[in-house]
Amino acid sequence: MSTPTSMTDTIDPSLASHAHPEHRWHSDPLLKVEKLTMRFGGLTAVNAVTFNCGRGDITALIGPNGAGKTTVFNCITGFYKPTEGRIGLRHGSLAVWDEFDALTTSTDQRLILGQDHLYLLERMPDFHVSRTAKVARTFQNIRLFAGMTVLENLLVAQHNALMSASAFSIAGILKLPGYGRAEAAAIDKAKYWLDKTNLTARADDPAGSLPYGDQRRLEIARAMCTNPVLLCLDEPAAGLNPKESLDLNTLLRSIRADHDTSLLLIEHDMSVVMGISDHVVVLNYGTKISDGTPEQVRNDPAVIAAYLGSDEEVED
Ligand SMILES: Nc1ncnc2c1ncn2[C@@H]1O[C@H](COP(=O)(O)OP(=O)(O)OP(=O)(O)O)[C@@H](O)[C@H]1O
């Protein structure tokens, strides 16, 4: 299973059960999660978990129920402050990782190195993780504005861009040509994502009236309207029928291909995980047990044993 030692010499051993330096999560990491630990009282939900997400990759975080996946998500997106560990997100060149590795005493939330930025997500409040570090997420339970139309949901997602174009004042809204331009751009972006998610015909319908699969795609469209660097999807295929699941795969692949957005998803549906992921990280009882390509992970005895002990299936 493991690759020759010569290939793995440069890789942090805690990262790799199936390491190869050519994988983007080693050669071009966007996100580094390092020794992440989260305790709730006496329960260790996540225990010293280390993994990278490659820039331009679809990374899947899988594992049996209660493995700690959502807790990792909540730490990355700022909902939880981890008990220990670090989470770095890069905007710009790879040079920021030298600072991350050297970082010991600073308490900054962000390091600015010329054009490049390094965000220390575990130190940032959740609204800064989304607004400044550009990490968007969807939830296991859909959270749309059910009484607003589909289009309105996509415009509300762009509220921050519109407010800054208004210079945060009513005078700005009334007088600034920049506001008019920002509003037109917001509508254009909403239309683009309506089209990509096949929701144009439902634009004026209340979001709450949409079938379940459409609501799932609308959540993704809404997240993409914020121009995320990293899009975190919590069980995007949950409750979808096989056709909707295939459409979801197509949508996620096209986000990866056409946008500078990397994806991290929690998913139980192995046809989605094995069908579209570049990289799979497996947790069990809060600990990372495997980390590699879908093929490597699917054949990993540790993963097979973990799933055999649960009601879930690792086969696609
Ligand atoms: N806020 C919390 N307070 C106390 N315990 C928690 C909290 N959040 C999660 N846990 C516990 O941490 C462990 C990991 O839960 P988590 O939801 O992260 O797992 P998961 O892999 O996402 O599971 P599932 O696939 O069922 O959603 C579980 O034992 C859970 O009960």
From TrEMBL:
Residue ranges of domain ABC transporter in the record: 31-310
Chain segments carrying region Disordered: 1-21
Alphabetized InterPro entries for the sequence: AAA+_ATPase (IPR003593), ABC_AA/LPS_Transport (IPR051120), ABC_transporter-like_ATP-bd (IPR003439), BCA_ABC_TP_C (IPR032823), P-loop_NTPase (IPR027417)
Superkingdom per UniProt: Bacteria
Keywords: Amino-acid transport, ATP-binding, Nucleotide-binding, Transport
SUPFAM superfamilies: P-loop containing nucleoside triphosphate hydrolases
Compositionally biased spans, kind Polar residues: 1-11
Gene Ontology MF terms in the entry: ATP binding
Family: Belongs to the ABC transporter superfamily.
Protein name: ABC transporter ATP-binding protein
Species in which this protein is naturally found: Labrys miyagiensis
